[in-house]
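Hi support team,

I've been running sequence recovery on a batch of backbones for a student project. Most finish fine, but this one hangs at about 90% for roughly twenty minutes before it completes. I'm not sure whether the input is malformed or the queue is just slow. I've pasted the structure tokens below so you can try to reproduce it. Let me know if you need the job ID as well.

Thanks,
M.K.
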């Protein structure tokens, strides 16, 4: 893989890289599209990374649809797909991990201990294997994009991190590989997440500046839809993810909650 990418670069091609866990949807494809626009050759990785899943999480059930994924990527046109085995990425004796930056501590870091350690480790490994000029990530996983950006800066990684907007269904639901776990009734419930984010943004536009008031309104919308298990409804500084008390400038609203047995996350900029 590295030889392929180095050969492209030796030809003067700008290389784009889109890391994914597969079960591809329009959200992933929008990253590929952005990479195709801005680069001369695009590589996509498909790897369900075990080290970013907690012991009680959905690693075993996570959708694996390699054939369909390759079909989609062939249709949009990418130069190379890297889909390694777990044994190739983590052979016997593997024991090196990346200590994630500070921005990995709250929110997902709090709810999913070890998650960003696994993310940073696999992303750093993938960047070594696919030495691209630019790597593309989605705002859907906003904290992840901050963590990867910070790691790239802190560790002097020689590539640019590009973050692309969240792709949604017409009714607002953010596309996610995990949406395919949802029953029709759960899918309707899940719409409350985007609704809560929209309401937060509208209230802010109407002049509400208290983060506590906005959080409580967003929680009410989730509860009203029957979503009981809320991991967090946060309004945070978009760079540090520190909780904000009063919205003096744009802030990020982030939600993580369980719909049935499926854990979903979403976010939106307020202001
Ligand atoms: P995943 O396969 O879930 O690890 O996601 C791979 C990449 O696709 C990550 O950078 C995600 O943030 C991005 N992504 C996932 N869902 C969406 C979406 N709905 N819109 C834009 N990007 C997304």
């Amino acid at each position: 893989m590295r030889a392929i990418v180095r050969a492209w670069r030796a030809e003067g091609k700008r290389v784009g890289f889109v890391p994914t866990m597969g079960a591809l949807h329009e959200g992933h494809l929008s990253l590929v599209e952005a990479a195709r626009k801005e680069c001369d050759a695009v590589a996509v990785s498909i790897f369900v990374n075990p080290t970013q899943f907690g012991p009680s999480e959905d690693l075993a059930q996570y959708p694996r649809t390699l054939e369909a994924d390759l079909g989609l990527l062939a249709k949009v046109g990418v130069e190379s797909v890297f889909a390694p085995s777990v044994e190739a990425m983590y052979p016997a004796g593997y024991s090196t991990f990346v200590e994630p930056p500070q921005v990995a501590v709250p929110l997902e870091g709090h709810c999913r201990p070890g998650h960003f350690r696994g993310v940073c480790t696999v992303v750093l490994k993938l960047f070594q294997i696919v030495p691209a000029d630019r790597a593309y990530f989605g705002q859907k996983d906003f904290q992840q994009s901050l963590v990867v950006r910070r790691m790239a800066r802190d560790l002097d990684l020689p590539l640019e991190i590009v973050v692309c907007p969240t792709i949604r269904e017409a009714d607002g639901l953010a596309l996610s590989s995990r949406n395919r776990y949802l029953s029709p009734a759960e899918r309707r419930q899940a719409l409350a997440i985007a609704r809560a984010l929209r309401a937060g943004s509208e209230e802010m536009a109407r002049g509400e500046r208290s983060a506590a008031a906005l959080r409580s309104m967003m929680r009410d919308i989730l509860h009203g839809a029957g979503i009981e298990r809320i991991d967090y409804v946060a309004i945070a500084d978009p760079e540090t993810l520190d909780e904000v008390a009063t919205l003096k400038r744009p802030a990020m609203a982030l939600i993580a909650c369980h719909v049935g047995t499926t854990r979903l996350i979403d976010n939106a900029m307020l202001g």
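--
Follow-up from support: It reproduced on our side and the slowdown came from queue contention, not your input. The chain has a mean pLDDT of 98. No action needed from you.
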